Amino acid sequence: MPVGLFRVCLLVITAIVNHPLFFPKENGTVPENTEEIIQKMKQREESLRLEQLRLEQEIADQEATQKALEKAAVVVEESKEEKVRWDMWTALSMVIFLLIELWRQDFQEGNWQDIGGEEDDMAVLGKAFKGVAFPDKAVLASFYEKRILGTTGDMARMREMVEGFADDLLEALRSVCNRDADMEVEDCMGVGSMYENWRVRKPFVCDLIVPFAPPEPYCFRCQTWCSGDSFPPDEQGYGTIKVCRADEDVTGCICDKTKLGEDMLCLLHSQVSSARPSSDMEDLLCFKNTQYLDADQVMKWFQIAVTKAWNRISHKYEFDLSFSLLDSPGALKIKFKSGKSIAFNLTPVVQYENSDVYFISHFPRSSLAADIPSSTHWFLTFAVYERRFIQLVSKTLPANACHVSCLQILSFLHGKQCSLTGPSGLTNYHLKTVLLHLLQARPGQDWAPEKLEARLQDMLKFLEKCLHEKKLYHFFIGNGKVPAELGFPIIFQRAEPLNLFRPFVLRRDIYRKMVDTFHEMLRNMSALINEYTVHIPLAHTNGIRKE
Protein backbone atom coordinates (compact mmCIF):
# COMPACT_ATOMS: atom_id res chain seq x y z
CA MET A 1 0.00 0.00 0.00
CA PRO A 2 2.68 2.58 0.87
CA VAL A 3 4.58 1.53 -2.17
CA GLY A 4 1.57 2.21 -4.33
CA LEU A 5 1.08 5.67 -2.90
CA PHE A 6 4.71 6.45 -3.51
CA ARG A 7 4.43 5.43 -7.12
CA VAL A 8 1.35 7.58 -7.63
CA CYS A 9 3.08 10.62 -6.12
CA LEU A 10 6.19 10.08 -8.18
CA LEU A 11 4.11 9.89 -11.32
CA VAL A 12 2.32 13.16 -10.52
CA ILE A 13 5.59 14.94 -9.76
CA THR A 14 7.12 13.68 -12.99
CA ALA A 15 4.16 14.87 -14.97
CA ILE A 16 4.26 18.32 -13.45
CA VAL A 17 7.98 18.73 -14.00
CA ASN A 18 7.80 17.65 -17.60
CA HIS A 19 4.85 19.98 -18.44
CA PRO A 20 5.86 22.26 -21.42
CA LEU A 21 4.50 25.40 -19.87
CA PHE A 22 7.05 25.27 -17.06
CA PHE A 23 10.09 24.17 -18.93
CA PRO A 24 9.58 24.75 -22.64
CA LYS A 25 12.15 23.35 -24.92
CA GLU A 26 13.95 25.41 -27.55
CA ASN A 27 12.42 23.51 -30.33
CA GLY A 28 9.03 23.64 -28.79
CA THR A 29 6.02 24.72 -30.82
CA VAL A 30 4.58 28.27 -30.39
CA PRO A 31 1.03 28.48 -29.32
CA GLU A 32 -1.41 29.53 -31.98
CA ASN A 33 -2.54 32.77 -30.15
CA THR A 34 0.96 34.36 -29.88
CA GLU A 35 0.52 36.62 -32.93
CA GLU A 36 -2.73 37.97 -31.55
CA ILE A 37 -1.03 38.76 -28.28
CA ILE A 38 1.81 40.53 -30.06
CA GLN A 39 -0.69 42.56 -32.14
CA LYS A 40 -2.51 43.70 -28.99
CA MET A 41 0.81 44.65 -27.38
CA LYS A 42 1.70 46.78 -30.41
CA GLN A 43 -1.69 48.48 -30.30
CA ARG A 44 -1.22 49.11 -26.61
CA GLU A 45 2.25 50.51 -27.28
CA GLU A 46 0.86 52.80 -30.02
CA SER A 47 -1.92 54.10 -27.76
CA LEU A 48 0.61 54.77 -25.03
CA ARG A 49 2.78 56.69 -27.50
CA LEU A 50 -0.18 58.78 -28.68
CA GLU A 51 -1.16 59.47 -25.10
CA GLN A 52 2.41 60.60 -24.40
CA LEU A 53 2.34 62.95 -27.40
CA ARG A 54 -1.01 64.37 -26.26
CA LEU A 55 0.31 64.98 -22.78
CA GLU A 56 3.47 66.61 -24.18
CA GLN A 57 1.28 68.87 -26.41
CA GLU A 58 -0.89 69.87 -23.47
CA ILE A 59 2.20 70.68 -21.43
CA ALA A 60 3.59 72.76 -24.31
CA ASP A 61 0.28 74.64 -24.70
CA GLN A 62 0.18 75.37 -21.01
CA GLU A 63 3.75 76.67 -21.13
CA ALA A 64 2.92 78.88 -24.17
CA THR A 65 -0.20 80.22 -22.46
CA GLN A 66 1.81 80.99 -19.37
CA LYS A 67 4.44 82.81 -21.42
CA ALA A 68 1.72 84.80 -23.28
CA LEU A 69 0.15 85.83 -19.99
CA GLU A 70 3.52 86.87 -18.64
CA LYS A 71 4.26 88.85 -21.84
CA ALA A 72 0.84 90.53 -21.75
CA ALA A 73 1.43 91.53 -18.16
CA VAL A 74 4.77 93.04 -19.18
CA VAL A 75 3.13 94.95 -22.07
CA VAL A 76 0.39 96.28 -19.79
CA GLU A 77 2.98 97.39 -17.29
CA GLU A 78 5.03 99.09 -19.99
CA SER A 79 1.93 100.80 -21.43
CA LYS A 80 1.09 102.12 -17.99
CA GLU A 81 4.60 103.49 -17.65
CA GLU A 82 4.42 104.94 -21.20
CA LYS A 83 1.06 106.57 -20.44
CA VAL A 84 2.51 108.11 -17.31
CA ARG A 85 5.46 109.45 -19.31
CA TRP A 86 3.09 110.70 -22.07
CA ASP A 87 0.88 112.48 -19.53
CA MET A 88 3.97 114.10 -18.08
CA TRP A 89 5.15 115.30 -21.50
CA THR A 90 1.65 116.53 -22.34
CA ALA A 91 1.47 118.55 -19.16
CA LEU A 92 4.96 119.91 -19.75
CA SER A 93 4.06 120.86 -23.33
CA MET A 94 0.93 122.67 -22.15
CA VAL A 95 2.97 124.64 -19.61
CA ILE A 96 5.50 125.60 -22.28
CA PHE A 97 2.69 126.60 -24.66
CA LEU A 98 1.06 128.79 -22.02
CA LEU A 99 4.38 130.47 -21.25
CA ILE A 100 4.93 131.15 -24.95
CA GLU A 101 1.39 132.52 -25.30
CA LEU A 102 1.88 134.83 -22.32
CA TRP A 103 5.16 136.02 -23.75
CA ARG A 104 3.53 136.59 -27.16
CA GLN A 105 0.77 138.69 -25.64
CA ASP A 106 3.28 140.78 -23.69
CA PHE A 107 5.31 141.18 -26.86
CA GLN A 108 2.31 142.29 -28.89
CA GLU A 109 1.19 144.70 -26.19
CA GLY A 110 4.30 146.73 -26.67
CA ASN A 111 7.30 144.78 -25.42
CA TRP A 112 8.89 144.92 -28.81
CA GLN A 113 12.35 143.49 -28.97
CA ASP A 114 15.25 145.83 -29.30
CA ILE A 115 15.54 146.62 -32.98
CA GLY A 116 18.93 148.21 -32.97
CA GLY A 117 20.63 151.12 -31.34
CA GLU A 118 23.12 153.74 -32.34
CA GLU A 119 25.80 151.07 -32.66
CA ASP A 120 23.81 149.14 -35.31
CA ASP A 121 25.65 148.68 -38.59
CA MET A 122 24.85 147.11 -41.90
CA ALA A 123 26.03 143.70 -40.67
CA VAL A 124 23.00 143.25 -38.42
CA LEU A 125 20.47 144.11 -41.11
CA GLY A 126 18.66 141.41 -43.02
CA LYS A 127 19.65 139.57 -46.16
CA ALA A 128 17.95 142.16 -48.33
CA PHE A 129 20.58 144.72 -47.29
CA LYS A 130 23.57 142.72 -48.50
CA GLY A 131 25.30 144.65 -51.23
CA VAL A 132 23.16 147.77 -50.70
CA ALA A 133 25.09 151.04 -50.42
CA PHE A 134 23.33 153.11 -47.78
CA PRO A 135 23.74 156.93 -48.10
CA ASP A 136 25.73 158.60 -45.33
CA LYS A 137 24.53 161.40 -43.05
CA ALA A 138 25.78 164.25 -45.25
CA VAL A 139 24.07 162.89 -48.38
CA LEU A 140 20.82 162.33 -46.50
CA ALA A 141 20.97 165.85 -45.07
CA SER A 142 21.44 167.38 -48.50
CA PHE A 143 18.68 165.22 -50.01
CA TYR A 144 16.24 166.13 -47.25
CA GLU A 145 16.94 169.84 -47.49
CA LYS A 146 16.65 170.00 -51.26
CA ARG A 147 13.93 167.47 -52.07
CA ILE A 148 11.74 167.36 -48.96
CA LEU A 149 11.84 170.82 -47.43
CA GLY A 150 11.85 172.48 -50.82
CA THR A 151 8.46 171.03 -51.76
CA THR A 152 6.56 171.17 -48.47
CA GLY A 153 6.82 174.87 -47.67
CA ASP A 154 3.34 175.76 -48.99
CA MET A 155 1.42 172.96 -47.22
CA ALA A 156 0.33 175.23 -44.36
CA ARG A 157 -1.24 177.77 -46.75
CA MET A 158 -3.01 175.01 -48.65
CA ARG A 159 -4.43 173.49 -45.44
CA GLU A 160 -5.74 176.86 -44.32
CA MET A 161 -7.40 177.53 -47.67
CA VAL A 162 -9.01 174.06 -47.90
CA GLU A 163 -10.29 174.12 -44.32
CA GLY A 164 -11.90 177.53 -44.80
CA PHE A 165 -13.65 176.46 -47.99
CA ALA A 166 -14.77 173.13 -46.46
CA ASP A 167 -16.34 174.93 -43.49
CA ASP A 168 -18.26 177.22 -45.85
CA LEU A 169 -19.36 174.26 -47.98
CA LEU A 170 -20.60 172.28 -44.96
CA GLU A 171 -22.50 175.30 -43.65
CA ALA A 172 -24.26 175.54 -47.00
CA LEU A 173 -24.93 171.78 -46.88
CA ARG A 174 -26.70 172.17 -43.53
CA SER A 175 -28.88 174.92 -44.95
CA VAL A 176 -30.07 172.83 -47.90
CA CYS A 177 -30.83 169.75 -45.82
CA ASN A 178 -34.11 169.07 -44.09
CA ARG A 179 -33.32 169.23 -40.38
CA ASP A 180 -36.26 166.95 -39.55
CA ALA A 181 -35.47 164.19 -42.04
CA ASP A 182 -31.86 164.44 -43.29
CA MET A 183 -28.64 163.53 -41.52
CA GLU A 184 -27.06 166.17 -39.30
CA VAL A 185 -23.55 167.13 -40.41
CA GLU A 186 -20.93 168.25 -37.89
CA ASP A 187 -17.67 170.20 -38.36
CA CYS A 188 -14.87 168.59 -40.34
CA MET A 189 -11.47 167.50 -38.99
CA GLY A 190 -8.14 167.21 -40.78
CA VAL A 191 -6.30 163.87 -40.62
CA GLY A 192 -3.55 162.05 -42.45
CA SER A 193 -0.16 163.00 -43.80
CA MET A 194 -0.99 166.62 -44.60
CA TYR A 195 -1.91 167.29 -40.97
CA GLU A 196 0.90 165.16 -39.55
CA ASN A 197 3.43 167.09 -41.67
CA TRP A 198 5.04 164.18 -43.48
CA ARG A 199 3.45 164.22 -46.94
CA VAL A 200 6.07 164.70 -49.68
CA ARG A 201 4.54 163.51 -52.94
CA LYS A 202 2.59 165.87 -55.15
CA PRO A 203 -0.19 166.63 -55.69
CA PHE A 204 -0.85 167.52 -52.06
CA VAL A 205 -4.28 166.29 -50.96
CA CYS A 206 -5.96 167.26 -47.70
CA ASP A 207 -8.02 164.54 -46.01
CA LEU A 208 -11.00 165.84 -44.03
CA ILE A 209 -13.52 163.66 -42.20
CA VAL A 210 -17.08 164.84 -41.55
CA PRO A 211 -19.03 163.19 -38.70
CA PHE A 212 -22.78 162.95 -39.21
CA ALA A 213 -25.70 161.77 -37.05
CA PRO A 214 -29.33 160.80 -37.72
CA PRO A 215 -32.19 163.21 -37.09
CA GLU A 216 -34.22 163.04 -33.90
CA PRO A 217 -35.61 160.82 -32.47
CA TYR A 218 -33.15 158.34 -34.01
CA CYS A 219 -29.62 157.45 -32.97
CA PHE A 220 -26.78 155.18 -34.06
CA ARG A 221 -26.01 151.93 -32.18
CA CYS A 222 -22.46 150.93 -33.11
CA GLN A 223 -21.14 147.40 -32.87
CA THR A 224 -17.50 146.43 -33.50
CA TRP A 225 -15.83 143.09 -34.14
CA CYS A 226 -14.36 143.15 -30.60
CA SER A 227 -17.57 144.06 -28.76
CA GLY A 228 -18.38 140.49 -27.79
CA ASP A 229 -20.27 138.99 -30.73
CA SER A 230 -18.34 136.66 -32.99
CA PHE A 231 -17.05 138.13 -36.24
CA PRO A 232 -15.33 136.09 -38.97
CA PRO A 233 -11.55 136.66 -39.32
CA ASP A 234 -12.03 138.58 -42.56
CA GLU A 235 -14.30 141.08 -40.75
CA GLN A 236 -11.80 142.06 -38.06
CA GLY A 237 -11.40 145.80 -38.03
CA TYR A 238 -14.99 146.33 -39.16
CA GLY A 239 -18.26 147.12 -37.44
CA THR A 240 -21.92 147.71 -38.12
CA ILE A 241 -24.15 150.72 -37.40
CA LYS A 242 -27.78 150.17 -36.46
CA VAL A 243 -30.29 153.00 -36.74
CA CYS A 244 -32.63 152.93 -33.71
CA ARG A 245 -34.99 155.21 -31.90
CA ALA A 246 -33.36 156.98 -28.99
CA ASP A 247 -35.93 155.57 -26.55
CA GLU A 248 -35.54 152.01 -27.84
CA ASP A 249 -34.13 149.41 -25.45
CA VAL A 250 -32.03 147.20 -27.66
CA THR A 251 -30.89 144.87 -24.88
CA GLY A 252 -33.90 144.55 -22.55
CA CYS A 253 -36.31 142.61 -24.77
CA ILE A 254 -35.93 139.64 -27.11
CA CYS A 255 -39.10 140.25 -29.11
CA ASP A 256 -37.08 141.52 -32.05
CA LYS A 257 -34.67 138.59 -31.89
CA THR A 258 -37.12 135.68 -31.80
CA LYS A 259 -40.38 134.88 -33.57
CA LEU A 260 -43.18 135.05 -31.00
CA GLY A 261 -45.84 133.74 -33.32
CA GLU A 262 -49.04 135.25 -34.64
CA ASP A 263 -51.02 134.55 -31.48
CA MET A 264 -48.46 136.05 -29.08
CA LEU A 265 -47.86 139.70 -28.22
CA CYS A 266 -44.93 141.37 -26.45
CA LEU A 267 -46.19 143.22 -23.37
CA LEU A 268 -43.27 145.68 -23.50
CA HIS A 269 -43.56 146.64 -27.16
CA SER A 270 -46.81 147.03 -28.99
CA GLN A 271 -47.18 146.16 -32.62
CA VAL A 272 -47.36 149.82 -33.51
CA SER A 273 -44.09 150.77 -31.82
CA SER A 274 -42.15 147.75 -33.05
CA ALA A 275 -43.17 147.92 -36.67
CA ARG A 276 -41.23 150.39 -38.77
CA PRO A 277 -42.02 151.01 -42.39
CA SER A 278 -39.15 149.99 -44.64
CA SER A 279 -39.44 153.29 -46.47
CA ASP A 280 -38.53 155.16 -43.29
CA MET A 281 -35.42 153.03 -42.87
CA GLU A 282 -34.42 153.63 -46.48
CA ASP A 283 -34.91 157.36 -45.93
CA LEU A 284 -32.44 156.98 -43.05
CA LEU A 285 -29.90 155.49 -45.51
CA CYS A 286 -30.34 151.92 -44.26
CA PHE A 287 -29.85 148.77 -46.28
CA LYS A 288 -33.07 147.44 -47.79
CA ASN A 289 -35.42 145.87 -45.23
CA THR A 290 -32.88 146.28 -42.41
CA GLN A 291 -31.96 148.84 -39.77
CA TYR A 292 -28.24 148.84 -40.65
CA LEU A 293 -26.64 151.92 -42.15
CA ASP A 294 -25.62 151.37 -45.76
CA ALA A 295 -22.31 152.90 -46.86
CA ASP A 296 -23.41 153.03 -50.49
CA GLN A 297 -26.58 154.93 -49.56
CA VAL A 298 -24.49 157.34 -47.48
CA MET A 299 -22.16 157.95 -50.43
CA LYS A 300 -25.06 158.79 -52.74
CA TRP A 301 -26.69 161.07 -50.18
CA PHE A 302 -23.43 162.89 -49.50
CA GLN A 303 -22.70 163.50 -53.17
CA ILE A 304 -26.17 164.94 -53.75
CA ALA A 305 -25.95 167.09 -50.62
CA VAL A 306 -22.51 168.47 -51.56
CA THR A 307 -23.74 169.26 -55.08
CA LYS A 308 -26.72 171.20 -53.70
CA ALA A 309 -24.50 173.05 -51.25
CA TRP A 310 -22.05 174.10 -53.97
CA ASN A 311 -24.86 175.35 -56.17
CA ARG A 312 -25.92 177.62 -53.35
CA ILE A 313 -22.48 179.23 -52.73
CA SER A 314 -20.77 178.91 -56.13
CA HIS A 315 -21.46 182.57 -56.96
CA LYS A 316 -19.13 183.61 -54.12
CA TYR A 317 -16.01 181.97 -55.61
CA GLU A 318 -14.02 182.43 -58.77
CA PHE A 319 -13.28 178.75 -59.32
CA ASP A 320 -15.12 175.56 -60.17
CA LEU A 321 -15.72 172.56 -57.92
CA SER A 322 -16.10 169.00 -59.23
CA PHE A 323 -15.87 165.40 -58.11
CA SER A 324 -12.52 163.97 -59.13
CA LEU A 325 -13.26 160.25 -58.50
CA LEU A 326 -16.52 158.47 -59.25
CA ASP A 327 -16.09 155.83 -56.52
CA SER A 328 -15.21 158.41 -53.84
CA PRO A 329 -18.16 160.67 -53.01
CA GLY A 330 -16.04 163.23 -51.21
CA ALA A 331 -13.06 163.38 -53.57
CA LEU A 332 -13.30 167.01 -54.69
CA LYS A 333 -11.15 169.19 -56.92
CA ILE A 334 -11.00 172.98 -57.05
CA LYS A 335 -10.14 174.28 -60.51
CA PHE A 336 -8.92 177.87 -60.88
CA LYS A 337 -9.19 179.88 -64.07
CA SER A 338 -5.39 179.89 -64.32
CA GLY A 339 -5.42 176.14 -64.80
CA LYS A 340 -4.15 175.22 -61.34
CA SER A 341 -6.12 172.87 -59.15
CA ILE A 342 -6.33 171.76 -55.52
CA ALA A 343 -7.63 168.33 -54.53
CA PHE A 344 -9.06 167.36 -51.17
CA ASN A 345 -11.21 164.60 -49.70
CA LEU A 346 -14.34 165.24 -47.67
CA THR A 347 -15.33 161.84 -46.25
CA PRO A 348 -18.47 161.13 -44.15
CA VAL A 349 -17.84 159.19 -40.93
CA VAL A 350 -19.80 158.01 -37.88
CA GLN A 351 -18.43 158.54 -34.38
CA TYR A 352 -17.96 155.46 -32.19
CA GLU A 353 -19.70 156.23 -28.89
CA ASN A 354 -17.98 159.23 -27.24
CA SER A 355 -14.49 158.59 -28.58
CA ASP A 356 -12.47 159.87 -31.54
CA VAL A 357 -12.66 156.49 -33.27
CA TYR A 358 -14.79 156.72 -36.40
CA PHE A 359 -16.54 154.36 -38.79
CA ILE A 360 -15.51 155.39 -42.28
CA SER A 361 -17.47 154.58 -45.41
CA HIS A 362 -14.43 154.25 -47.66
CA PHE A 363 -10.72 155.09 -47.88
CA PRO A 364 -9.81 157.50 -50.67
CA ARG A 365 -6.74 156.43 -52.65
CA SER A 366 -6.18 153.44 -50.39
CA SER A 367 -6.46 149.66 -50.50
CA LEU A 368 -7.05 149.29 -46.76
CA ALA A 369 -10.73 148.62 -47.25
CA ALA A 370 -10.62 147.23 -50.78
CA ASP A 371 -12.44 144.02 -49.82
CA ILE A 372 -15.28 145.23 -47.60
CA PRO A 373 -17.53 142.25 -46.71
CA SER A 374 -20.73 144.21 -47.47
CA SER A 375 -22.03 147.76 -47.66
CA THR A 376 -23.32 147.48 -44.08
CA HIS A 377 -19.79 146.84 -42.76
CA TRP A 378 -17.81 149.97 -41.93
CA PHE A 379 -14.09 150.12 -41.37
CA LEU A 380 -12.80 151.79 -38.20
CA THR A 381 -10.23 154.58 -38.50
CA PHE A 382 -7.97 155.73 -35.67
CA ALA A 383 -6.51 158.66 -37.64
CA VAL A 384 -7.34 161.25 -34.96
CA TYR A 385 -5.54 159.25 -32.26
CA GLU A 386 -2.59 158.65 -34.58
CA ARG A 387 -2.20 162.38 -35.10
CA ARG A 388 -2.48 163.04 -31.36
CA PHE A 389 0.08 160.34 -30.54
CA ILE A 390 2.64 161.85 -32.90
CA GLN A 391 2.03 165.28 -31.40
CA LEU A 392 2.32 163.90 -27.86
CA VAL A 393 5.56 162.04 -28.52
CA SER A 394 7.07 164.99 -30.40
CA LYS A 395 6.95 167.03 -27.19
CA THR A 396 9.34 164.56 -25.51
CA LEU A 397 11.86 164.37 -28.37
CA PRO A 398 14.97 166.53 -28.90
CA ALA A 399 14.71 169.69 -30.95
CA ASN A 400 14.51 169.07 -34.70
CA ALA A 401 13.98 165.35 -34.09
CA CYS A 402 14.36 163.06 -37.10
CA HIS A 403 11.25 160.88 -36.70
CA VAL A 404 9.13 162.75 -39.27
CA SER A 405 12.16 163.09 -41.55
CA CYS A 406 12.58 159.30 -41.59
CA LEU A 407 8.96 158.80 -42.60
CA GLN A 408 9.18 161.49 -45.28
CA ILE A 409 12.29 159.98 -46.86
CA LEU A 410 10.89 156.47 -46.78
CA SER A 411 7.56 157.62 -48.20
CA PHE A 412 9.36 159.47 -51.00
CA LEU A 413 11.48 156.43 -51.92
CA HIS A 414 8.46 154.15 -51.89
CA GLY A 415 6.46 156.50 -54.07
CA LYS A 416 9.29 156.81 -56.59
CA GLN A 417 9.69 153.03 -56.74
CA CYS A 418 5.94 152.52 -57.30
CA SER A 419 6.07 155.03 -60.17
CA LEU A 420 8.76 152.84 -61.77
CA THR A 421 7.42 149.33 -61.13
CA GLY A 422 3.74 149.98 -60.46
CA PRO A 423 1.75 150.05 -57.22
CA SER A 424 2.00 147.24 -54.69
CA GLY A 425 0.18 146.19 -51.54
CA LEU A 426 2.59 148.23 -49.44
CA THR A 427 1.11 151.64 -48.57
CA ASN A 428 2.16 154.79 -46.76
CA TYR A 429 -0.09 153.73 -43.88
CA HIS A 430 2.11 150.65 -43.39
CA LEU A 431 5.16 152.91 -43.29
CA LYS A 432 3.52 155.17 -40.71
CA THR A 433 2.60 152.15 -38.60
CA VAL A 434 6.26 151.12 -38.54
CA LEU A 435 7.21 154.58 -37.31
CA LEU A 436 4.56 154.52 -34.57
CA HIS A 437 5.91 151.21 -33.23
CA LEU A 438 9.47 152.54 -33.22
CA LEU A 439 8.44 155.78 -31.52
CA GLN A 440 6.98 153.73 -28.68
CA ALA A 441 9.89 151.27 -28.48
CA ARG A 442 12.84 153.69 -28.55
CA PRO A 443 13.82 156.37 -26.03
CA GLY A 444 13.50 160.00 -27.02
CA GLN A 445 17.23 160.71 -27.28
CA ASP A 446 17.53 158.14 -30.08
CA TRP A 447 15.60 160.48 -32.37
CA ALA A 448 18.14 163.32 -32.31
CA PRO A 449 18.68 164.91 -35.75
CA GLU A 450 22.20 163.50 -36.10
CA LYS A 451 20.82 159.96 -35.84
CA LEU A 452 18.73 160.16 -39.00
CA GLU A 453 20.77 157.50 -40.80
CA ALA A 454 20.51 154.98 -37.95
CA ARG A 455 16.79 155.47 -37.46
CA LEU A 456 16.11 155.18 -41.19
CA GLN A 457 17.95 151.86 -41.15
CA ASP A 458 15.84 150.79 -38.17
CA MET A 459 12.64 151.47 -40.09
CA LEU A 460 13.83 149.49 -43.10
CA LYS A 461 14.98 146.64 -40.87
CA PHE A 462 11.67 146.55 -39.01
CA LEU A 463 9.72 146.61 -42.28
CA GLU A 464 11.83 143.80 -43.74
CA LYS A 465 11.17 141.68 -40.63
CA CYS A 466 7.42 142.31 -40.90
CA LEU A 467 7.41 141.38 -44.59
CA HIS A 468 9.31 138.19 -43.86
CA GLU A 469 6.92 137.16 -41.08
CA LYS A 470 3.84 138.54 -42.89
CA LYS A 471 2.90 140.31 -39.67
CA LEU A 472 2.53 144.04 -39.13
CA TYR A 473 0.23 144.74 -36.21
CA HIS A 474 -2.02 147.77 -35.99
CA PHE A 475 -0.45 150.21 -33.56
CA PHE A 476 -3.51 150.87 -31.39
CA ILE A 477 -5.56 147.65 -31.56
CA GLY A 478 -4.32 145.25 -28.89
CA ASN A 479 -1.68 147.69 -27.60
CA GLY A 480 -2.03 147.94 -23.83
CA LYS A 481 0.71 150.58 -23.56
CA VAL A 482 -1.06 153.43 -25.33
CA PRO A 483 -0.46 156.62 -23.27
CA ALA A 484 -3.36 157.35 -20.96
CA GLU A 485 -3.25 161.01 -21.97
CA LEU A 486 -4.81 160.10 -25.31
CA GLY A 487 -8.02 158.81 -23.73
CA PHE A 488 -8.02 155.81 -26.05
CA PRO A 489 -10.99 153.40 -25.62
CA ILE A 490 -10.00 150.43 -23.46
CA ILE A 491 -12.09 148.00 -25.55
CA PHE A 492 -9.63 148.27 -28.44
CA GLN A 493 -6.60 147.99 -26.17
CA ARG A 494 -7.90 144.66 -24.86
CA ALA A 495 -8.78 143.33 -28.30
CA GLU A 496 -6.67 140.81 -30.16
CA PRO A 497 -3.92 142.51 -32.20
CA LEU A 498 -4.93 143.19 -35.79
CA ASN A 499 -2.44 142.04 -38.43
CA LEU A 500 -2.41 144.56 -41.29
CA PHE A 501 -0.61 142.03 -43.51
CA ARG A 502 -3.25 139.33 -43.03
CA PRO A 503 -4.94 139.99 -46.44
CA PHE A 504 -1.63 139.18 -48.15
CA VAL A 505 -1.18 135.76 -46.51
CA LEU A 506 -3.59 134.05 -48.91
CA ARG A 507 -2.97 136.36 -51.87
CA ARG A 508 0.56 135.28 -52.71
CA ASP A 509 0.73 137.28 -55.95
CA ILE A 510 0.17 140.58 -54.12
CA TYR A 511 2.55 139.56 -51.35
CA ARG A 512 5.28 138.69 -53.85
CA LYS A 513 4.76 142.01 -55.64
CA MET A 514 5.05 143.84 -52.31
CA VAL A 515 8.30 142.07 -51.37
CA ASP A 516 9.80 142.62 -54.83
CA THR A 517 8.92 146.33 -54.66
CA PHE A 518 10.63 146.62 -51.28
CA HIS A 519 13.80 144.93 -52.54
CA GLU A 520 13.84 147.05 -55.68
CA MET A 521 13.47 150.17 -53.52
CA LEU A 522 16.52 149.14 -51.49
CA ARG A 523 18.60 148.55 -54.59
CA ASN A 524 17.54 151.87 -56.16
CA MET A 525 17.76 153.89 -52.95
CA SER A 526 21.21 155.38 -53.52
CA ALA A 527 20.43 156.25 -57.13
CA LEU A 528 17.14 157.95 -56.21
CA ILE A 529 18.73 159.95 -53.41
CA ASN A 530 21.80 160.94 -55.42
CA GLU A 531 19.53 162.21 -58.18
CA TYR A 532 18.25 164.95 -55.87
CA THR A 533 21.43 165.50 -53.84
CA VAL A 534 23.70 168.53 -54.12
CA HIS A 535 27.39 167.72 -53.89
CA ILE A 536 28.57 169.06 -50.55
CA PRO A 537 31.93 169.16 -48.77
CA LEU A 538 32.80 166.22 -46.55
CA ALA A 539 33.08 168.50 -43.54
CA HIS A 540 29.45 169.54 -43.87
CA THR A 541 27.55 168.63 -40.73
CA ASN A 542 24.07 167.28 -40.54
CA GLY A 543 21.64 170.02 -39.57
CA ILE A 544 18.30 168.60 -40.46
CA ARG A 545 15.44 170.55 -39.08
CA LYS A 546 11.93 169.41 -38.60
CA GLU A 547 9.38 170.26 -41.24
Automatic annotation (TrEMBL):
Domain of life: Eukaryota
Keyword field: Cell membrane, Coiled coil, Glycoprotein, Membrane, Nucleus, Signal, Transmembrane, Transmembrane helix
Coiled-coil features, chain-numbered ranges: 38-72
InterPro entries (UniProt xref): ITPRIP-like, Mab-21_HhH/H2TH-like, MAB21L/cGLR
Membrane topology: Single-pass type I membrane protein
Chief location category: membrane
Cellular-component GO terms for this entry: nuclear outer membrane; plasma membrane
GO MF term set: protein kinase inhibitor activity
Subcellular locations according to the entry: Cell membrane; Nucleus outer membrane
UniProt xrefs under Pfam families: Mab-21_C
Signal peptide: 1-20
Domain Mab-21-like HhH/H2TH-like: 404-477
Homology family: Belongs to the ITPRIP family.
Function: Enhances Ca(2+)-mediated inhibition of inositol 1,4,5-triphosphate receptor (ITPR) Ca(2+) release.
Name listed for the protein in its UniProt record: Inositol 1,4,5-trisphosphate receptor-interacting protein
Native source species: Dryoscopus gambensis
Gene: Itprip
